[in-house]
Amino acid sequence: MSLYASVIAAIVLILLIVSLARLGKVKTRADYLVAGRSLPAFVLVFTLLSSWIGSGSLLGGAENAYQHGFVALWQAGGGWAGLLLIYFIAPRARKFAQFTIPDLLETRYNQTARVLGVIAILLTYTAITSYQFIGGGDILHLIFPQFITPILGRYILAAFVILFTAIAGMSSVAYMDLFIGLLATTTMCIALPVLIHRAGGWPAVHAALPQSHFQLFGDLSFIQCLELFLPTCLLLLGNQSMYQKFFSARSEKDASRAVVGWIIGTIILETVIVAIAVTGSALFPTGEVSKAPREILAYCGLHGFGDGSPALRLLGALLMGAIFAKIISTANNWLFSPATNLVNDIYVRYLYPKASNKKILMVSRLMVVLLGIWSLFQSLGTESVLKKALYAYTIYSAALTPVILAAFFWRRATAAAAVASIAIGTVVTVSWEWVAPHLPPAIGHRDAIFPALLASLLGLVVISLMTAPPSSRQLASLGEQ
Q1: Which among 401, 320, 374 is positioned nearest to 138, based on CA atoms?
Q2: Domain annotation covers residue 372
């Protein structure tokens, strides 16, 4: 255990050094919120990769792969489809050059859309941050089972994340992601073939598992696969954290180049994650991990290499450390993003428009702490990371993604329609758990994504066509003619 503890300690120390090194460069609101709009493509690639692949993939996706096999790639595939579309959105987003998604919503629609957007983002992003704390707590418990319970581990992980995020904002987040992205990608790509070899080779893995683990739909229906695919795809298309990275880019060209690297990195890394989980299900079909399958990647790092040579044990420790670092990285991104909403879209916009940079930085750090505590509270009542992830993805997918895409690509979308769409998508998602049991089984047994998205889109399209078109000033604000 001393080796694993040493690797975790070294990673935490490096992340702290990176954060403190960026602290001196943070002087203004733009420095803290969008890194002074100075990030080159190389840094953008890894901060986008690190912000996207976190506990949703490392825990939720891995749990799905352990139980059902490669059909778990439907969840990842939603992100890949979204990435192909984002290539065309990135330059437009950088050209807009604001701070947050609600900035875009008010500029293109109105103030009500901004406020409702903030509410939807807070619900989504703190939920996503909360299950990062669960993942980090699980890893600390696996390494120190006699000293750290999973719950205590969540408190410790929350303290790390709040500290790292508060120090230097986007600047520290982006450059920590550069280190973490390189570490995770390299370690996991090396660990997979070694783990397959220790399982007896790919034929042995294939023989040990049900045939459905290797089929396109596995043991799920096509509709169930779409319920994995759609929330992920739509979350990515409207993801505020991603847009903030584009707002932080040095130029429109850097934003476009970064998306290319992001697409390649995401496809490779998410496929490797699922393959490790599938291999782990062949190696460890029973025992402790079968009762908590979300821990399969960390369990492989701890037990898949632990009885081998010193080099293999080091690889196992690095794999565990990379997973831990990725969870911290993702939590940093998803915690930082809603904090910027409270500061930029509420505090500066409505309460203190003339606040000094010093006061804005102070309030920004306070918001990180408060939202971190709220996310920690949510984590204490969550058991299924996959279920929590799909819930969070659906709020954002139904409430915000349609109006965000319409802001860039549909000139006819109106302010009244955007407000209705955001409100409908949020209400249907949040209330679905209570409404669904009273509906016919064919509808009530479905996840919220289909009814919430359909209702949101209908509201956006129908009300837009029933109301006056937006003014030329609103369209010109996004660079449209």
Answers
A1: 320
A2: yes
